[in-house]
Amino acid sequence: MVIKNYQNLPEALVKAVTLGKHNNPGCLSVTTLLNSTKQILLTDRHWDSLEDDVANRVWAILGTTAHKLFEHEGENEFAEEFISYDFEGVKITGRIDLYNMAEGVVTDYKTNSAWKIKFQDFKDWDRQGMIYAWLLMKNNFKVNKCRFISLIKDHSKRDAKFDPSYPKHPIFTYEFDVTPERLEEIEFFIRDRVLLYKQYLDAPDDDIPPCGADERWEKPTKYAVKKDGQKRAVRVFDTLKDAEKMMTDLGKGHFVEHRPGESTRCMDYCLCWQYCNFYRDNVAPSIIEQASA
User: Is 170 exposed, middle or buried (0-12, 13-18, 19+ CB in 10 A)?
Assistant: First the structure.
């Protein structure tokens, strides 16, 4: 990966955010399995030419620092341990932040913004924790619980006082039990990811299926019925037909505002965009349209 330094930041900072390729040939890491097949393969194939700016990777330093601070082991624990398991012809790999052998608890440390906690957006943590649990159990370690300890980088004491859904403290703990049902579900998920990876391993870039809506962090198109002179919408609809009906019912002085959907991850967070036909055919035209509006 090519790390650009547009702000001419110190070389030490550039080195701190420069990472090697995440997966070796024939291997898929726990965090990689959370991505789509297209993103996995495009990242692997074009790694040497992918570009990012030092400033965009600054939070990665905080995450790395946090892991370094917490890598010390307690009694009956091991930390930063690499484990793997051969599954369906692919090696699944992971590095465990902390595992307590006596209690059967696997812990992962995170740095993230407060909105993730506020909106209870834990789907990726659920999957990641269960993949770690599955990987540990395949290596003959018992796992009863998964625990995520989140360091909230933008925590606001004021918001914590007045917003009931806002995290009360700058450290938040999320945990859940590991059950046979959840282990069965996650093995099905892993198998599906592995089989898709093998199926499209040698396929041309454009033949790899696009990321799903959730994987693109898609915000769907909306239609807002508004009244002349007012900023807030009267009501927001999923379809133009429903919005136009309400506009007609409300009468003169009302109009429909088109709010185009967007694939947030494609637009701002995916480094493979220049090699992706979905981006080329669907995202780029909307960016050009919005820029010219």
Answer: middle
pTM of the predicted model as reported, rounded to 2 decimal places:
0.86
What tokens were used for 56? Answer: 């965009």
Whether the Cβ atoms of residue 105 and residue 99 lie closer than 8 Å to each other: yes
Tally of helices (H runs) and strands (E runs) in the chain: 11, 13
SS (H, E, C) 115-142: HHHHCCCCHHHHHHHHHHHHHHHHCCCC
Location of structure tokens 């859904």: 165
Mean pLDDT by 10 residues, the chain (293 residues): 90 82 87 96 94 85 69 81 95 95 95 93 96 97 96 94 95 97 98 97 97 92 93 93 94 91 90 95 81 62
Coil, helix or strand for 271? coil
Q: Specify the DSSP class assigned to residue 203.
A: S
Domains of the chain with CATH codes: 2-207 (3.90.320.10), 222-259 (no CATH)
Q: Taking the CA atoms of 222, 226, 229 and 232 in sequence, report the sign of the dihedral they define.
A: negative
pLDDT the model gives residue 293: 57
The token pair at 24 is 């070796």
What pLDDT sits at residue 23?
80
